[in-house]
Amino acid sequence: MNPLCLLLAAALGGFTPSNLADIGGPIRLRNESPFQLIFMSTPPIDARIPKRPRWEVEVLESNNFNVSDTINSTPAYQAVVASSKPVPISLSSLSATAKANPNVIYNLSDTEITKLAVRYTRPFGNHWCGEVEVPVYTYSGGFMDPVIDAFHAAFGFNPWGRQYFPENQSQVFFGKGNSQLAFNGQRGPNFGDITLRAIHQVRPDRHGWPAVALSTALKLPTGNRNSAMGSGCFDGDVGLHLTHHWGQSWFYGTAGANFLGGWRSMPDVPVRNTADYHLGYEYRVNNRWSTLVSLSDYGSPIAASGNQSIGQPSLLTAMTARYNAGDYELEFGYLEHINRNTNSHDVVLYSRIRFWP
Asked: How far is CA 102 from the centre of its chain?
């Protein structure tokens, strides 16, 4: 064999840890926007089965500013626009407008969400594993508004009405007729809906073919549905997952179908089943560091319409760096919502630690 090929193979081998099924994997994202996080969505999942149990702790800071096009014509919004300085919107006025127009969905999200999630994964043989995820959410005014405003101003981006609202204050409203949810100020920390998941690997990654796995999950109604932390209903999903390794590159793909039980505290709001799609790529710079990118499309569980409607699908991009220290793995990155409508967060700061006891 050509000596150069031997050297190249040795170099690539040096970048490849021995426990491939235990490390790496796609960025584990879902839609964490208000009125989306309360429903089941299928995250990107590694088709490889880990060889040993592991824990993961995820911290996510999500900035959300979404005003549906239906709110733009309300007296409450017009009063905000007419003010000489940024002011909070009147939630009582929005409530009266929603009751007077029962066939229209109104939603406003000017808040930050802090998520702390703990996930435990345990293998059962070579082809099965189970997961349990317990999230905790907090709504607050946060700290990211000035950073985002400065970023938009520096590049000449449309602020989309941010300039009319005070910075780092939390307001949330969703209404359709008499079904309404409204609060301002901090809510939480409270538990969200716990998810149980089972994964079965149909085929491992070998002979040039990707690993293939199927999954199914159940979301339990443990979250506070009056604070947009849970739907109050059971949801389920099924997913198809692919993982392929080539040199220093890993490719990930997930497609999932979500079957939603409804929104218990909002019986007038139509809820529909959804489909989620994810593509991810990881490049191992060396045996410690990786860079990752992903593109995700989330279906909307709420049927609505309009250019800035919560009823539109959500397209997200993510960029992440990962550091592997052998017994633990660190991940940190940035997520951006690239559709300008009210179906997801604007930007997210994301971090995760994975470790093996």
From this structure: 30
Reported as a pLDDT band with limits 50, 70 and 90, residue 95 is very high
146-185 pLDDT per residue, tens: 887 777 777 777 777 888 888 899 999 999 999 999 998 8
Unique residue bearing structure tokens 């309404």: 180
- With residue 323 as reference, give the H or E element that holds it: strand 314-324
What structural domains and CATH numbers belong to the chain? 3-355 (2.40.160.40)
Cα–Cα distance measured from residue 273 to residue 198, given in angstroms and rounded to the nearest whole number: 20
Question: Are the CB atoms for 35 and 108 separated by under 8 Å?
Answer: no
d(CA 228, CA 170) in angstroms, rounded, equals 13
How many Å apart are CA 265 and CA 263, to the nearest integer? Answer: 6
What distance lies between CA 115 and its chain's CA centroid? 10
Identify any residues that bridge with 331 across adjacent strands, giving them in sequence order.
Answer: 322, 352
Q: Rounded to whole angstroms, how far apart are CA atoms 226 and 119?
A: 25
Of 233, 197, 232, 235, which is closest to residue 214 (Cα–Cα)?
Answer: 197
- At residue 338 the predicted structure's pLDDT band, cuts being 50, 70 and 90, is low
Query: Phi and psi at residue 64, in whole multiples of 5°?
Result: -125, 120
Map residue 154 onto helix, strand or coil: helix
Measured between alpha carbons, how far is 178 from 98 in angstroms, rounded to an integer? Answer: 7
Cα–Cα distance measured from residue 189 to residue 198, given in angstroms and rounded to the nearest whole number: 28
Tokens of 303: 């049927």
DSSP 272: -
Contact in structure between 86 and 165 (CB atoms under 8 Å): yes
